[in-house]
Structures are given as C-alpha cells and as structure tokens.
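Input chain follows. Return structure tokens only.
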Amino acid sequence: MTRHFQREIDKLKKKMLHVAAMVEENLQGAVKSVTERDAILASEVIERDNDIDQMEVEVEEDCLKILALHQPVAYDLRFLIAVLKINNDLERIGDLATNIAERTRELVQYPPLRVPFDLDGMLQLAIEMVKGSVDSLVELDSRRADQVCKTDDEMDAWHRGAYAAIQEEIAKNPDAVKYYISLLGISRNLERIGDHATNIAEDVMYMESGEIVRHQGEGLAHF
C-alpha cells in the first residue's frame, strides 16, 4: 500500500465517521422533538438533513476516485465496498430521522392523547441500534455488530405491536385518526432505522471477515 493510498483511506475514514456523527446527532434531535413535542427542534432536524446529504455525496465520490485510481484488492477493496454501502445506509437513517421530525410537526397540532404502545422504548432502541452499529464501525468490532443484528427482531416485533394497538385506538376514537396515523408513521420509521442499522452492522462484519451474513440461513458467501 502506497503512502498516498493510505492517506486517502485515512481521509475517507474520518469523513465517514463525521457522517455517522451527524446522523446520530440528528436522530437524537428527532427523538427529542417527539418526546418533548418540540416543533422548533423538529424543524432544525429537517434543515440539517441537507448537510448529511452533501456529505454522503462527498464520501461516495471519494470512494469512486480511490477505486479508479488505485484499483485496490482483498481487504482494501472489501473496505471500500462496505463504506459505499454503509454510507448509503447512514444517509437513509438521516432521511428517516427527518421523517420522524416531520411527524412531530403534525402531532403538535393536536392535543396529546394516550400513546397505545411503548413509543419511548422504540425510540431508545432505535438510538441504541444506530449507536451500536456506528460504534462497531469505529472500533471494527464484529461482536458489537452481531449484537445489533440480533436486536432487529425486537424492533420488528414492537412495530407489529404498535400497528395492532393503533388500529384498536382508531376504531375506538375515529376522530383522532390523523393523530394516530402520525404515531404509526413514527413507529414505521423507527422500524426502518433498525433495518438500516442492521445493514451497517452486517457490512462491518463483512469488512472484517469477508463473509456476507445477510443470508446465513442459505449458506455464507465468501469474498
């Protein structure tokens, strides 16, 4: 590996971690906007998404330049492929945080009603999954990544429970349907954030081992 190539990789890593930090901060803000019914904070989250989008484009362009100029192989190639995929998942988490903030701006138009599912638990789990996946990336920790993957089933179950509970509440209180639909949107976005955090964790495991773990039940593919 040439010194120039190593410098480019180090620069890419720093930029990637910056994107991850921005996404994590925006998700924290979106979650806080929900729990505190803070429309101003929700608007700030939405505005910051443009910065995440710009950084995502820069990381992708840097990856493509390195691939074209240095034609890496083995671990270095695996690393760049993983960065491209993780970069996309981080950007999507940023978009989903924005969606949650938009739902907050809808919710505050209505008086607060009982939330018929464990919204706080879902919010906290989403934050933990994103933080865990980002930490596994920073530390290149396959064990931490594996823990994130195993948590995804819990998030899916909570979303299914939220969907059923909201259906019951709408049947009892049809006048509040818009309020409950906004809550359902938050639950759905949290479930999708969990999916993207899991994708990141799986790509960290791929980066480290060369094994594609998305379809373990069908046998592992090796790079």
